[in-house]
What we know:
Layout: H1 2-11, H2 25-36, E1 41-45, E2 57-64, H3 67-80, E3 84-87, E4 93-95, E5 100-107, E6 112-115, E7 118-122, H4 127-136, E8 139-140, H5 152-158, E9 161-162, E10 165-166, H6 167-170, E11 171-177, E12 183-187, E13 216-223, E14 225-226, H7 229-246, E15 253-256, H8 266-272, E16 279-280, E17 283-285, E18 292-295, H9 301-319, E19 328-330
Parallel strand pairs: 2-5, 3-5, 4-19
Antiparallel strand pairs: 1-2, 6-7, 7-13, 8-14, 9-10, 11-12, 11-13, 15-18, 16-17, 17-18
Helix pairs in contact: 1-3
Bound molecules: flavin-adenine dinucleotide (FAD).
Flavin-adenine dinucleotide (FAD) is lined by residues 51, 85-93, 107, 123, 148-151, 153-155, 157-158, 160-162, 200, 210, 212, 216-217, 247, 253-255, 328.
Amino acid sequence: MTGTRAGAGARAGAGAAHPAAAGDWAAVAAEIARSVGVRPRRDEPLSRHTTMRVGGPADLLAVAHDAAQLAALVRFARAAGLPYVVIGRGSNLVVGDAGIRGLAIVSRAESCRVEGNRVIAEAGVPLARTAMLAQRAGLSGLEFGLAIPGTVGGAVWANAGAHGSDIAAVLESVRILRVDGTVADEPAGAIGLTYRDSRLKHAAEHGSGDSAAGEIVLEATFGLMPADPAAIETRLDEIRRWRREHQPLNLPSAGSIFRNPAADSAGRLIDAAGLKGARVGGAAISERHANFIVNDGGATAADVRRLAEIARAEVARRFGVELVYEVQFIGDWSDWGQEER
Ligand SMILES: Cc1cc2nc3c(=O)[nH]c(=O)nc-3n(C[C@H](O)[C@H](O)[C@H](O)COP(=O)(O)OP(=O)(O)OC[C@H]3O[C@@H](n4cnc5c(N)ncnc54)[C@H](O)[C@@H]3O)c2cc1C
């Protein structure tokens, strides 16, 4: 980190603290606009950038429209010693009501192409779009991604999966911005993809408590199988139907709150604990799928987290099973738990 931080010092005059250190967000925003060409927004509510529709304001929020801007924004933050977090579609996140300190970088790098049996997609491409592009090209393997409402970057980070498959099954290589600022193409086998996990989750550097602030996905290459486009479309229709029948897609949520314990399902356990329909404020445990918490009107992030904690405690009490979070609570939770004390 020394190299890069010194660079920023030079720009602000040797020894002078970077405006970020002083929380001078107007000055930081101006510097980002000048050096990266992206105009950050101040105090932008994260409820607009997450599928659970909760989350307070980010000191600064910048949207990256291609992989180069994504890398430049991350490099800028690192050089300035500015806490940052990269967000895809916010479909696996619950951002605290106090928001995000520092810079939220929203990844909208969306170039995507087919080359032979490969789909090559920048980190901000919605995973569903890669599934549909592959179908049109007569390539099979990404169908499972149709109903995962996140981006390629978020999916690689979490090894997202569904319907019997996951990212690990189709990922060939990934272009990564490393902690040291270099960019490298890594074979899929090198990033430790396991059940809802990857090396990227553990390369925490700094930022607002979000582990993905370490290594950043810029682009991914998926290796797929030629197949009949009509047969792929039939599979996509099955997935659409299954999702409509089994998940509360009509209400804001962040997908599965907990990972499935070995040889069991978190949804079955929460349901067996009699918690379907349980609520805290505007947050409720879905009647359709007990491992989903929905925001059915004016929920706060604290409501969601409190309800999740109730479910976790009740399942532990009744069945002795410790549920592990799949969703991430990020941002400023400094006031979390105060009211309980
Ligand atoms: C209705 C619904 C259904 C869902 N169904 C499924 C399912 O079937 N299977 C499943 O696995 N998940 C599911 N999810 C959860 C979620 O969609 C996935 O985890 C998805 O991969 C998250 O992608 P995202 O872009 O929204 O990431 P975000 O939620 O924005 O971020 C998640 C994490 O990824 C990191 N990240 C994002 N982009 C990058 C990048 N470019 N480089 C490095 N790190 C990055 C973030 O910093 C954060 O730590 C569902 C969610 C919803 C709302």
